[in-house]
Amino acid sequence: MIPDTQPAPQVPAADQTLRILAFLSRQRGPVAARTIADQLGIPRSSVYHLLHAMAAHGFVVHLEAERRWGLGTAAFELAGGYARQQPLARLGRPLVASLADRTGESVHLAVMSGRDVVYIVEERAPRRPALVTDVGVRLPAHLTATGRAMLAALPREQVRALYPDAAVFADRTGQGPQNPSALRAILREARTTGYATEDGEVTLGFRSVGVAVRDHAGWPVAAVAVTWQGDEVDPARLAAAVAPAAAELARRIS
């Protein structure tokens, strides 16, 4: 149990709600309600009431089969809102610009927002075509290299909660995963290689490679990706250039 060294809160329910959200954000995966109660020193009945209230608003999800609770899509929206308020973009912009100079290809930085990614920085390389990844654009995370890199860094239970069935899979070019099983195979490969790829699933003829940016607890807060046209470039070579930039941004935000 975590000792309470702070003054008694004036709004206990609000204080307990925020403590639960903060606790869940530090975990590597969903946890049981009794674990939350024991670790935070909150009565179990209060924990259950608060979790159900947060679930109604999308901040947590209940995985019935495991009897565990994890963060919901509304929590990802908060993370995206933080990023859109500039701190992450300010820290990432010089790294993105430097990576574009080194690779000669266009580079972007994105964050998760529900089942989408939102692009917060883009650096187009000279003499490279315009992309759909302008700042503020949202794209389905399962189709993008940035989204796949972040999804691969999430606990598998969290991915199942975000993608429960084939009905949630959007399509742009007729390519890409159409169901949870296909997405799991893509994410397994990303975990093995340390980077995610996409080939014509956002825009035909264009390919991307992305690497997740993890916070101090290992959670993906963003991803850096390089996009290029054609088949001449080796994705592994570009991933080797992207990975240090993602690691440096992780260091700066931590």
What's the short version?
By secondary structure, the chain is α+β, with helices and mostly antiparallel strands.
What does this protein structure show overall?
This protein has two domains: 12-71, Winged helix-like DNA-binding domain superfamily/Winged helix DNA-binding domain (Arc Repressor Mutant, subunit A, Orthogonal Bundle); 76-253, GAF domain (Beta-Lactamase), CATH 3.30.450. Helices cover 44% and strands 20% of the residues. The chain is built from nine helices and eight strands. A six-stranded antiparallel β-sheet has the order 5-4-3-8-7-6. It has a two-stranded antiparallel ribbon with strand order 1-2. Helix 1 (12-25) packs across helix 3 (44-56). The radius of gyration is 19 Å and the shape is globular. The model is unreliable at 1-5 (pLDDT under 50).
Overall geometry: globular
- Beta-strand segment tally: 8
CATH superfamily of the largest domain: GAF domain
Question: By helix and strand content, what is the structural category?
Answer: alpha+beta
**Major sheet strand order:** 5-4-3-8-7-6
- Spell out the helices and strands N to C: HHHEEHHEEEHHHEEEH
Helix content: 40-55%
CATH class of the largest domain: Alpha Beta
Average pLDDT, all residues = 89
- The domain count comes to 2
CATH architectural grouping of the largest domain: 2-Layer Sandwich
Fill in the CATH topology of the largest domain: Beta-Lactamase
Please report the number of helical segments. 9
